[in-house]
Each structure stands twice: as C-alpha cells, then as structure tokens.
Specification:
Length: about 575
Amino acid sequence: YHDGGYRSIMSSDFVKSVELIPGGYGAGYGRGLGGIVTVAMRPLDEEGIHGSVAADTIDASASVRAKVADRLHVAIAARKSHLDTVLSAVSSENVGQYVPIPRYWDGEARVAYDLAQHETLEIGGLISSDRTTRSLPNADPSLATSQTTGTDFNRIYVRYEKHLADGAIAEVIPSFGTDTTTLVNQYGNTPTELSSTTNIYGLRADWRGPVATFLRATVGVDAEMLVSNLHRSGSTGVPPREGDIYVFGEPPPPQINEDDWQTTIASVAPYAEGDFSFFDDTLHIVPGARLEPFVTSTNKVTPPLPGNPPVSTTREEQVIEPRVSVRYAFTPEISAKAAYGQYHQAPQPEDLSAIFGTPTLALSNAEQSLVGTTMQMTEALSVEVTGFYSTMGNLPVRSQSESPLVAHALDQTGIGRRYGMQFLLRQQKVGKFFGWVSYTISRSERQDAPNLGWRLFDYDQPHVFTALGSYDLGLGFEVGARFRFASGYPRTPVISSYYDVTTDTYEPLFGAHNSIRIPAFYSLDVRLSKRFKIGRSDAEVYLDVQNVTNHANAEEIVYNPTFTQRGYITGLPVMPVFGGRWLW
C-alpha cells in the first residue's frame, strides 16, 4: 500500500487475488524472516476493450485492458493522489504541518502475446512513488522537527509460460528494477540524511507438474542480486534503529559523521518440493528444501585513512532450508493444516556501513511454525483459524558498548520471538449481502543481548481487528461499512528532563523501555454508492465518509521542548470522499 493505506500500489483491475501467509511458506520463497503477501494478477484473456476511469477527493486513476490483435493483449493503468491539493483548497491553514498527508503516484503496463496454444510471452512493468512528511512545528525555528520519507521503485519483467500436454507448467521470469529511498530528519537547521539507490536483478524459473498419480512436484531456481549505493550524513544516532530509546522531536546525539558506501548482495537458490497425496486426496504432505548460497560484499571493511584507498570485504555463506507442510480434510467441510520452515535473511545494505554499521554482518535466521483449520459452515460462510509461532536469531542490534570497535557499530546478538492467532470469518455474497471479519492477536518480542531482558518489539500490535460488510439496497444503490481497530505501537515514556547548557536544549529522561503505547487506532467508515447503466457501460457515484466518529487517531507521541507536556501527531479527522467511476 501507499503511505497512509488509502490505496494499493497496484490497480485493483489488475489483481486476481491477495493472500497473506504469516509463516511456514514453501521452498519457492526465501530471503526473509517474516510472513509474505502473494498477489496473483488477472490473466490477460478478455475479448474487446475494457477499462475504468475514477476520481475522488483522494486521487484519480484510469486503466485499460484490450485485445488489440488475434494473439496480442495489452493493459495499462495509472493513479495519482491529489489529497494535499484538495485539503489546501478547503482549509485556511497548512494542514500538512500538523497531519501527515501522503503524496503518491503509480503506473503499470502489461503486454501479452500468445506464441501458440497454451504458450504465452508477457512483458510488464510497475512504477511507484511516495512522499510523506511528519512535523512538529515550533515558534522557534531552531526547535522545529520534521521527518520526510521518500520511496520510489520500478520493476520490469519478461514472463514466459508454457502449459504442457501432461498438465505441467514451465515458467521463466527474468526481471530488473530500481529501489530509491530517502529519509531526512530535520531538527532546527541540523539535517540528518540517509539515501539509497539499489539496482535489483532477478530470475525465477520453475517447472510444476505430475510425477506420479500420487505426486506433483515443483523444481526451480530463484536468483537475485542487489547492487546498492548509499549515502548517510549527520548524527550517528539518527535515524533511530529498532530498539533505540527515542522520542520524536528529541535533539539528535551531537556526534556527527558521514559515509558513502556500496554493497552487493547476491544469491542463487535452487529449490524443490513434492506434493504427496494419500487416502483419496484427503491427506497432502508437502516436503521441500531450498539451497541458498549468499554472497555479501561492501567496498569498505573499515573507514579508510586519508590518502589511502578503501579495502573491500566479501562474505560467503551457504544454507539449506528445510520446509514441510501437511493438509488433511476430515470432511469436505472441515480441514486442518500445519507447516514448519527454516529461513535466512542477508543484512540490509544500510547496516553495512563502516562508520554507521558493521560491514562483516552475517545472515540472520528464523524458524517458523503454524497450525490451522478451515471450516465451511455453509456454502457461502467459512471460518479460518491459524496459530503461528516463530523465533529469530543473529539479529543486528546497536552495540551495547559506549565505545564500540571501529566498523563494529552493530552486533549480531539480537534474538526475537513472535506468536499469536489469526481468525477470519468470510461471508461470500448471499442474496444482497457479503462481508468478512478478521482478527489477529499476537505478541512480538526482542532481546538485544544475553544480559538484557525481553522487551516488546517496536512494531508489536497485540490486537488488529477489521469488520466489513456491504448490502445491495436495490435500484443500483449499495451501502457498506468498515470498522478497524489496532493497538498502538509501543513507546518509551519520558518521565523527566534536564537542561543541557552546552547545547541550550532540554534532554529527556526515559522510563522503562517500550512500557507505554501510542493510543489505539479505530475508525468507522461508511459508504453509499449508486450505479447507473450508460449504454453498454456502467457508471458509479459514491460518498465514502472515512472516520465517521471524527476520532483523532494518534500516529506518534510528541512532547513540548521542555518535555513537560505530551501530545500526538494525529491522522486526518472525519473526511468525506466524493467520487465517481466509469467502467466499460
């Protein structure tokens, strides 16, 4: 999603399905310690020309899908936000000084050509951009604080797919892309900047098909290389790392430095898994494994002395990651599943600085397990319950030493654990109603060093709840509602402060680490729409009122310059969104 969560980075006209897998996923995916989200795109196989044009208070978008020749299909989509312009037009104040307003745009294009029956070549691309600023204004410019983040990325890919006569599918997808991120923290006239540009080269090739009457297999290779150029300047403690005790608006540490460095992270991972079917297809056992050699290099193993060239360093590691999942159908309506897997992740390029990080960081690791059940209560009503547990090790954390060794600002002494349950109640459309309810209860904790106790992860959210429903009133009218609730992120309280005469600022004194939370988020949104027929096309106008209760949802805790009063950076208040959409 774009910043703010208003829109996905991909047009909904292009999306077939979205699935969240909290852990225990198969051998085809790797290089990460958390869950994954898989997005399946709609096949380009429609006849004629189809598309949509939409605009509302938040953004404007358009998409077109067309069959332009006997074997040739094309699709293109674009979107751009204008919420900042709308708010400035209806408000006399600079709302952006007090409320983070996302600015974004994205675009996609796909061209598919049928080489033969059941054989397709597709070329596609995706581009996206986001800018968001959070600020803490002050009458004294030397005490004003702001944080601006920017994320830009693009991808281009070629996908060759062939369906074989025996039911197997062969697929080859080379890809290339660029990620560019910027983070600028401004305290008064003192900026701290972190910027990164990464070229990403990828190749995925696999074969999926039957081997025997009871066995389907998948074999493939997943290769990726990231070449990054990074720059960082300013305070050595800003931006804060996960686990740092910090409050927005706090004066940055006075130690400053600067570094420019390059990194290369590459791996070529062959993988295989088999789906064994037993007892009339009621039991499926899917063992798999992924062999992943990692190569990590950076151009500076230590800060070079004046007049001397930098000395690079390269680290090679090879891991085998076993995976297994089991599914069993007790009845056609009730089934259960379980999964286990081992996972590894290379260090992040920004952690490999010889000044701000440690160039010789090794892989981090995780073990993930999950169990769950699915119950089809009626033909249209289903319930899913999934429990998950994962442990992590070798996590990079800030060195506990007040004077760490050169090029060792980070240690790999961190460990973590996460556990919880997901509930999903889904009602497919029956008559005039459809809806779903999801709830996740979880706990995520970290231990930064063996001599330290467990603490809450900075992004721990014990409760996340969403309920959504829509009802067809007839005559083209439809009404819907959505309620969302989420626990606030943990924060460390400021219990006192002192005046620093050397910097002429107040410095906070903190309480127990992550012992308070940002207030919980909740929002009730309602929507009323009317659909019309215009010839062979459809048109829709709608009113979507977001945050009906006008609840001031806090996004961050802030303090006054003396740290004697607490406040919050909040999201937008009640916001009516007027819009329309034309589909053909």
